[in-house]
Specification:
Distance between the termini: 71 Å
Number of strands: 9
Structural class: mainly beta
InterPro entries: Chromo-like_dom_sf, Chromo/chromo_shadow_dom, Chromo_domain, SH3_Tf2-1
Order of helices and strands: EEEEEEEEEHH
Protein name: Chromo domain-containing protein
Largest sheet: 3 strands, antiparallel
Number of helices: 2
Pfam family, one: Chromo
Radius of gyration: 32 Å
Length: 147
């Protein structure tokens, strides 16, 4: 079964179905690799030969159960979430090993300096951009040695 794209029909024809496409229709013959003849009702008033670009595969409608809120399968058992690896957390007690880079971020009204820091006893993947204020709170001596 196939649907016909609504753009294929002239404006004003079959207006009610224009938004979604018309059909489904049975394919009668394949005229060429890009032309097909469909089984259309006589009152449509258009040729029953269509270019493949005007056709859309028909999908059966999804059946909605009469009681959608009745559980058909056993309820899901909630499992505890796995623990987040330590790399997810940045505690104020963590120490900065070194400042790798810095950059200035522009906003409409202001410029902000950010620092790329490497955390002590952490992988390079855990390097983080932090604000000047956060750097100041975590490690005052690194702030004094940068620009």
């Amino acid at each position: 079964m196939i649907r016909v794209r609504p753009e294929r029909f002239p404006p004003g024809t079959l207006r009610k179905l224009h938004a979604k496409g018309i059909g489904p229709f049975r394919i009668i013959t394949k005229i060429s690799p890009n032309a097909y003849t469909l089984e259309l009702p006589d009152d449509y008033g258009v040729s029953n030969t269509f270019n493949i670009s005007d056709l859309v595969a028909y999908k059966e409608p999804v059946e909605i159960p009469s009681e959608p809120f009745e559980p058909e399968s056993p309820p899901l058992v909630s499992e505890p979430l796995p623990e987040c690896p330590q790399a997810c957390f940045k505690k104020a007690s963590e120490q900065i090993e070194k400042i790798i880079d810095d950059k200035i971020t522009n906003t409409r009204n202001k410029q902000y300096r950010k620092y790329l820091v490497h955390w002590k006893d952490r992988l390079n993947e855990d390097d983080t951009w932090i604000s000047r204020e956060e750097l100041h709170r975590l490690n005052l001596e690194h702030l004094k040695t940068t620009r």
